[in-house]
Structure formats: structure tokens, C-alpha cells
Write a structure and sequence with these properties.
Number of domains: 2
Order of helices and strands: HEEEEHHEHEHEEHEEEEE
Strand order of the largest sheet: 5-13-10-6-9
CATH topology of the largest domain: Major capsid protein gp5 fold
Largest sheet: 5 strands, mixed
Distance between the termini: 45 Å
Number of helices: 6
Helix content: 25-40%
Number of strands: 13
Length: 249
């Protein structure tokens, strides 16, 4: 770990840091959605501030965004865990990691929605088969612009819930029908508003996620008898071909 994390100045032992790191990784895997379908580049290092996108006269540079959330551990909790030979309570670290994950996904999905150059009518998903029909229409819109599969579908929780029902005429869950045309996966994210959805043509030539510093925990000092920590990362969504994104409207 880099010196900027100040871990040697913290009160935690090597074993406690290991448990903390495992907690952060586990929570991140549970909560992060965007990373499940977007290809990653890096980690390149915390010192990397910008990355290029485009070529020739159209080349520009994107600044990596630093995402962070702080938490505290009380000295008595640290000492009590050691005296009782019990694992350190790391709930505050888990909450900070979940906050970072939500910020990361908000950046990703906000960027996809803002950049989308294609759209497909949402329709009434209370009607049988409409969710599947909407996704098929979105893929057809992408194909017409020469953006092919695999496709990933991202839905708000409320839209996703409407796919969890059987289509009587086909005897299958609507989500399973959607999965047949969304080889890149069907996902839900709480950062999407009630009637928001996306269909994306995958591939690093269309978009990727550049990571400078992956999620990591630093020690930032003390406030009286409380120890202060920060979960942080740096990254940027790099959209190379906005036409690969279809917004459900």
C-alpha cells in the first residue's frame, strides 16, 4: 500500500487491516452494479489524474473522479475486541464502502443516461410482454445503427420487479425472455429513477471504466479518542461511442 494511506500511523494491527480490506472488497462486490458489465482498465495508480478518449483531432482528456466516504472506530471498541479475542466490529467501514459504491454507480449510470444517443419507448410495463417488447425494440434500434450484442439491460428496481412475472402465453418469466436477448446480463440499480432503463452494446471499443486507485481504506488521524478512516477510489467512465447506449423513455 502507498504511503499516502498512512496505515503505519494507525492503531490497527496487520490482521485487523486484513479483515478491514476483506470487508471492503466483499461489500463492494455485493453493491457495485456498473462493474458487472463494463470492462475495467487499471488500476493505474492514485497519481493518474487524466486519461485520453478519442483519436486525432477529436481526442480529449477526462479527469478521474475521486470518490470517498469517511468512518470512525472508537478506541474502546478496538481494545474490547482484542481483550475478548473477538473480531473487530467493522460495520462503519461497510457503510462507508456502500456509500462509495452508490456514488460510483450514480456516476456511471448518470453518465450513460446523459450520453445516450438512441432511445426506445418504454410503453406500459403493466401489460403482459411489454417489458420484453421494449428491450427487443431497443436492441433493434441499436442494430440499425450497427451496434451489436452482447447487450446488457439495466433497470430501476420498480421496472425490474415488473419482469418477475410469468408471461402466460409463453410460460416463462419475462426476465428470462429478456435474458435471451441480453447476453451481457439483466441488472437493477437503485440509482436509477422509477421509470429509467438502459440497453447498452458492450465492448471496450464502446465504453470502459478507467480505475486509477481501486477501493481502498486510508487512516486519516484521530479526533480525541476516535480513530478516523477513509474509503476512497479514483475512476472515470470513458464513453467512446455514445450510439452504443439506448435509453428507455
Amino acid at each position: 500500500m502507498g504511503d499516502f494511506l498512512l496505515r503505519d500511523a494507525s492503531p490497527l494491527s496487520a490482521g485487523e487491516w486484513q479483515a478491514l480490506d476483506q470487508m471492503v472488497v466483499g461489500v463492494a462486490r455485493q453493491y457495485l452494479v456498473g462493474r458487472r458489465f463494463i470492462e475495467l482498465v487499471g488500476p493505474l495508480g492514485m497519481g493518474v489524474e487524466t486519461v485520453p478518449v478519442g483519436a486525432g483531432d477529436r481526442r480529449k482528456y477526462l479527469e478521474l473522479e475521486v470518490i470517498q466516504a469517511d468512518f470512525r472506530l472508537i478506541w474502546r471498541d478496538v481494545e474490547a475486541s482484542r481483550q475478548a479475542c473477538m473480531p473487530l466490529e467493522l460495520g462503519p467501514a461497510a457503510m462507508a464502502t456502500a456509500a462509495c459504491a452508490r456514488q460510483e454507480d450514480a456516476m456511471i449510470f448518470g453518465g450513460l443516461l446523459a450520453a445516450a444517443e438512441n432511445s426506445a419507448p418504454l410503453g406500459d410495463w403493466n401489460q403482459e410482454g411489454q417489458a420484453f417488447a421494449t428491450v427487443v425494440a431497443a436492441t433493434q434500434e441499436l442494430v440499425s445503427d450497427d451496434f451489436y450484442g452482447p447487450y446488457a439491460v439495466m433497470l430501476s428496481p420498480s421496472l425490474y420487479a415488473k419482469t418477475q412475472r410469468v408471461v402466460p402465453s409463453m410460460g416463462r418469466l419475462e426476465s428470462k425472455l429478456i435474458a435471451d436477448v441480453a447476453e451481457g446480463g439483466l441488472f437493477r440499480s437503485p440509482v436509477l429513477d422509477a421509470d429509467q432503463g438502459l440497453v447498452v452494446s458492450l465492448g471496450a471499443f464502446n465504453l470502459d471504466l478507467v480505475v486509477g486507485q481501486d477501493l481502498v481504506t486510508a487512516y486519516t488521524g484521530n479526533d480525541g479518542m476516535e480513530h478516523l478512516f477513509r474509503v476512497l477510489e479514483s475512476l472515470v467512465l470513458r464513453i467512446k461511442r455514445p450510439g452504443a447506449i439506448c435509453k428507455l423513455t
